[in-house]
Amino acid sequence: MNKALFIDRDGVLNQDKGYTHKISDLKLLDGVLEGLQRFQSLDYKIIIITNQSGIARGLFKIKDFHDFMTKMIQIFNNNKITINDYFFCPHHIDGVVKEYSISCDCRKPEAGMIFQAQEKYGFDLSKSVLIGDKESDILAGIKANIPLNIRITKNILLKDSLASYTTKDLIQAAEIIKKII
Ligand SMILES: [Mg+2]
Ligand SMILES: [Zn+2]
Fold this sequence. Notes:
The structure is a single chain. Strand 2, helix 2 and strand 3 (about 85-90) form a beta-alpha-beta unit. The protein has a single domain (about 5-180), classed as Rossmann fold (3-Layer(aba) Sandwich). The protein has about 180 residues and is of the alpha/beta class. The chain has a six-stranded parallel beta sheet with strand order 3-2-1-4-5-6, with helices on both faces. The chain has helices at about 30-40, 60-80, 110-120, 135-145, 170-180, and strands at about 5, 45-50, 85-90, 130, 150, 165. Bound molecules: magnesium ion and zinc ion (ZN).
């Protein structure tokens, strides 16, 4: 019964302003609190996995990222939601900060962050779910052999996605999962 919800951050949990890192820009999207509560009540451990190439690009620092996460997690905790852990990729091949400007195996669409979490917690990936707003999220889930990959999009007629389902928000995603598990 050790299953995870691997969930992207920007554009799924909070408004994506592009390289979002300022706490003043932290705005949760509609349905996020209720959606996460529903996944939690379905016994999913919640793991955030997020590409943060703004770090490699020199736009903000690792500390800014963690400060943003601390604030976000505090809001979730205030709403009885436990974030079990978060994993991030600070890399980008075209970055300017030397130590992070590499080709890595954690930047989605690679599945490295999912495997890091799996190694740390022993999740059963075959029972896990992934949610993201970009096709690169979905591809990471598929590479990790996660069977249920849900793409959140305003464009519900989205074609050419490899996602198992497309939904408009997290509540709808939780409803679908509840019906099929
Ligand atoms: Mg995103
Ligand atoms: Zn990386």
